[in-house]
Design a protein that fits this description.
Chain lengths: 294, 294
């Protein structure tokens, strides 16, 4: 999917909502668990059928779905098969939707190539989240696919982001004459390097919603790129804070909500409750999208 | 597996060799590919049967196997099923061997918990490689499992390790009075933080073989921990350099070779060629192990 196609979808739906499919077998509604234990539903279909119900109920509001690989891996190969089925279901039924594999991979070139094959060929995801720790090698193989995206961790929403991401850095000793290079947080160094690897057309960044002041600063540093923003809802961020601090002239945001939508209701009404939660978030988003368009 | 059990195995086998199962469907021997295309061998067994042959041929020399998750993910759920079968085969037939999932995961706490479940419960791996970018949240859930290990990326063997891993860092402004804190490479900061998370009994570090001078320095900083050292062979490092720079009184090294062993021969003799390559590496290793024991 191109930058333009994504932005067009955002305008069409009046939304920059990404629904996170962190599908947890321990948290899915009792009715699905019961159907599995009654043998009315095969266990290896439960995650997929839950996802399908959530997708159908929220797709009028969501421009993107983020599939959190860990939850599927935790169920072994049967989980991966359901992840694959979820991606196929999205692509076949809602081809406009942007599909993100939230996998946070990051390895040397020949291994990164295999991960790219996994998410872009074996599954037809539009994007995959990547960790920059190992440098450009870990990112470049993903950028060779036309219309596919690398979403690179910059500043994340978790407390221990401060262990390393916000440390001040400076380049190797040969280059230290330039004092302006000496107090650059690691996440900012990631943003700068990424400009050498790709562009706003194939790179996005993960920027947590729990740090609106820093989100504002990061928007100044990277005015055109899309940011994938987790941390709204369960982790404490709000749409208002994120939109105010991070929106650009092409929206530039995909705001993710996972638990707040998926587990809004644990009864048989889980899908309509998810739909209602998505609708509420999008109602807030529209206020800010309309301001930008003016 | 405990630190002591691992060291005992090293002494018993006179080896600190880790065989990397980077099983690439494009590189496996022609005889296996032929058997698949002749329908004599189901496609979804090819990686597992190749691994089984490699394991049986090398296990007298190897103390550890490192399964590179990317290569299995690239084959979809059928690949993951073969990864699971490989781990089970190792655990059932060679319970002394240390099994590493080379996955380089790293995510927030509730997601990291799912990854730990995937590699330590769904599969019975002894260790998983992890990226430290997101900080302690990404590591801690793995340390809750007794006898299991987190192997944290410190300084890797790839060229672009210098993009971020070797940047000089300093802590947040509140703490900068201490000048000794001001020129610490990021990978060293990772080593220091990791001491707060765990110990030599449940944390190892990835340190590339292509940087023996830095390996020596890292050994001084972390005298007791095990290092998983990739980069010997195809990437250019040698056993001599690594042992000289990195060995401690309890060996402290797992030196990995993947391509040099797996693809030593592409004929029907691939397994005996792999065995011979492993034997050669271990012959070199024994020289250094004997020196340490004296």
């Amino acid at each position: 999917m191109t930058y333009k196609q994504l932005y067009d979808q955002i305008l069409r739906k009046g939304s920059f909502l990404c629904v996170g499919l962190d599908t947890d077998m321990e948290k899915i509604p009792a009715c699905i668990k019961q159907a599995v234990s009654d043998d009315k539903l095969p266990e290896e279909e439960a995650m997929f059928l839950f996802n399908k119900a959530i997708i159908d109920a929220t797709v009028q509001y969501a421009v993107a779905y983020k599939i959190n690989s860990a939850f599927y891996e935790a169920e072994g190969w049967k989980g991966i098969r359901q992840m694959e089925k979820t991606v196929s279901y999205l692509k076949e039924n809602y081809p406009d939707v942007f599909v993100i594999a939230d996998a946070k991979r990051g390895d040397i070139g020949n291994t990164a190539k295999q991960y790219a094959k996994a998410f872009f060929e074996k599954m037809d995801c539009d994007a995959v989240t990547l960790s920059p720790y190992m440098g450009g090698d870990a990112i470049m193989p993903f950028l060779k696919y036309e219309g596919k995206w690398a979403i690179i961790l910059a500043l994340t929403s978790n407390v221990t982001a401060e262990d390393f991401e916000t440390l001040e850095t400076r380049p190797h000793s040969l280059e230290i004459d330039d004092e302006s290079q000496n107090h650059v947080p690691l996440y900012e160094r990631v943003l700068r390097q990424a400009e050498r690897w790709g562009s706003k057309e194939n790179i996005m960044f993960v920027v947590g919603a729990t740090r609106p002041d820093q989100l504002y600063r990061i928007r100044l540093l990277s005015p055109d790129s899309f940011f994938l923003v987790p941390g709204v809802g369960a982790q404490g961020g709000t749409v208002e804070e994120v939109a105010t601090a991070g929106m650009n002239s092409h929206c530039g945001l995909l705001v993710n909500s996972s638990r707040g939508i998926l587990y809004a209701d644990s009864s048989v009404n889980f899908a309509s409750a998810a739909s209602e939660k998505a609708r509420e978030l999008v109602a807030q988003m529209r206020l800010y999208l309309n301001q930008t368009k003016r």
